[in-house]
Amino acid sequence: MNPREDFLLKAFELGIIKFGNFTLKSGIESPFYVDLRPLASSPQLLKTLSNNLLELVDNKDFELICGVPYAALPMATAMSLTSNIPLIIKRKENKGYGTKRMVEGVFHEGQTCLLVEDVITSGKSLLETIDQVEREGLIVEDLVVVLDREQGGVDKLRERGYHVQTLFTINEVIDILHKYHRLTDSEKVKIKEFLNNPTEEVVQKRLPLEEKKVTHPIGKRLVELALKKQSNLIASADLITSAEVLRFANEVADHIVALKLHSDIIQDFSDDLIYQLKKLAKEKEFLLFEDRKFADIGNTQEMQFKKSIYKISDWADLVTVHPIGGAESLKVFENTGVITLAEMSSKGALTDDYYFSKVINVSENEPKVLGCVAQRKIGDHLLLFTPGVNINVSGDSKGQQYNTPEVVFNNYHTDFMIVGRGLYKSADVKTAAKEYQTLGWIAYLQSLN
Ligand code: 5BU
């Protein structure tokens, strides 16, 4: 066994690669999952790895080493300690306050910087990282990467003139694990087949609404309505009197799949308003959606849902919930469809990557949840709802940020867009609703190709 093989088998024992069925963030099913973070749990392996990475570039001088959180951060730190080259850290995200820098550490413009990454796939995210480091005035020419998933990333970076050195390719990893009986023949065949498929294509594609793997009856009903009415528009009736809400509902009714309310802003809220809305919803075929944003323990949420003067449980087909109180707090919503809030549209929202992935995880495992609110792609098992849509303005003075229907359907693969002021502030609400309906549906159809 050579030292590379020895390293790989020990790393495998730490759990850096797992075999089975995994749904990746992009929604595609993969027969393996790679996570190099456990390497930091073995100082010996980390040291070996850092020496191997330094050897890939031992004929070059750099003024800085940059680690990208999280997996590459301990690697870059170890390389910095061995080589005496100072470390800088590229943030995962702007922290939204304080210095607002994307790169932390002591450096100045014009310095050369070696970038360290754990895994390279299509190269897209690595190019974004390089771009952010270069925007700080640093010179990036060389990159070292532990694992190449062989999905075109290395070539893409080389085309742009970067020198990329990788320690292992995924095919090599599979061959070594198979050679030392960590993988059976059939597992190897299955994985190689997966690797030979152009998965990038699959990643980019979105599922048509009718193929979404939604099991909740209200979710199914929503999909059915969307296909029937050729609409993915949810109108947000953020109005403060019953008369205004009813007038608005009547004007948009033909063009929407759901009417969203904030019942606690309606000053004269009454049972009669709900009676009228239910009647209209039945006749014109749309759902009633209460954007309550529950955010408490289950017991309190249950009382807010059933016992408040709004009697939400009596009429809402859909409710929004911040699942901050944990998965069990979602169980109280009976037959109403729950939409969790994974990410908010407003500037500086605290719903970062970490929170987002935790919400998705909770949502995928709780049958009462039929979808999520977010501003990015989610998997095929949940419906995606995206507010912050307006064709005329890019934001308001209170932090709201808008996108066009094209952006939310093409880039985020959203299923339903939520529009408030774009509709109710319009001089001709009915025409505006028709326009949003058409634009949304065209953007959705285009995003299928
Ligand atoms: P607007 O007028 O189109 O900006 O209204 C958007 C509506 O969607 C409004 O009722 C918000 O409360 C709601 N909303 C949002 O804008 N952004 C979010 O992230 C979430 C809800 Br969650």
Automatic annotation (TrEMBL):
Q: Is Lyase set as a keyword in this record?
A: yes
Q: Which Gene3D superfamilies match?
A: 3.40.50.2020, Aldolase class I (3.20.20.70)
This protein's cofactor list reads: Mg(2+)
Q: Where does 5-phospho-alpha-D-ribose 1-diphosphate bind?
A: 25, 91-92, 95, 117-125
Q: Which GO terms describe its molecular function?
A: magnesium ion binding; orotate phosphoribosyltransferase activity; orotidine-5'-phosphate decarboxylase activity
Q: In which pathway does it act?
A: Pyrimidine metabolism; UMP biosynthesis via de novo pathway; UMP from orotate: step 2/2; Pyrimidine metabolism; UMP biosynthesis via de novo pathway; UMP from orotate: step 1/2
List keywords of the entry alphabetically.
Decarboxylase, Glycosyltransferase, Lyase, Magnesium, Multifunctional enzyme, Pyrimidine biosynthesis, Transferase
Per the UniProt entry, what are the Gene Ontology biological process annotations, in alphabetical order? 'de novo' pyrimidine nucleobase biosynthetic process; 'de novo' UMP biosynthetic process
InterPro entries linked to this entry: Aldolase_TIM, OMPdecase, OMPdeCOase_dom, OPRT, Or_phspho_trans_dom, PRTase-like, PRTase_dom, RibuloseP-bd_barrel
Q: Does the keyword Lipid biosynthesis apply?
A: no
Enzymatic class: transferase
**Positions of the catalytic residues:** 291, 293, 296
Question: Where would I find the Orotidine 5'-phosphate decarboxylase domain in this sequence?
Answer: 232-436
> Where, in this chain's numbering, is orotate bound?
121, 149
Which positions in this protein are listed as binding substrate? Answer: 238, 260, 345, 400, 420-421
Enzyme Commission code: 2.4.2.10
Q: Which CDD domains match?
A: OMP_decarboxylase_like (cd04725), PRTases_typeI (cd06223)
**Task performed by this protein:** Catalyzes the transfer of a ribosyl phosphate group from 5-phosphoribose 1-diphosphate to orotate, leading to the formation of orotidine monophosphate (OMP).
Family statement? Belongs to the purine/pyrimidine phosphoribosyltransferase family. PyrE subfamily.
**Matching NCBIfam families:** pyrE (TIGR00336), pyrF (TIGR01740)
On subunit structure and binding partners, the annotation says: Homodimer.
Protein's name according to its UniProt entry: Orotate phosphoribosyltransferase
The species this protein belongs to is Weeksella virosa (strain ATCC 43766 / DSM 16922 / JCM 21250 / CCUG 30538 / CDC 9751 / IAM 14551 / NBRC 16016 / NCTC 11634 / CL345/78)
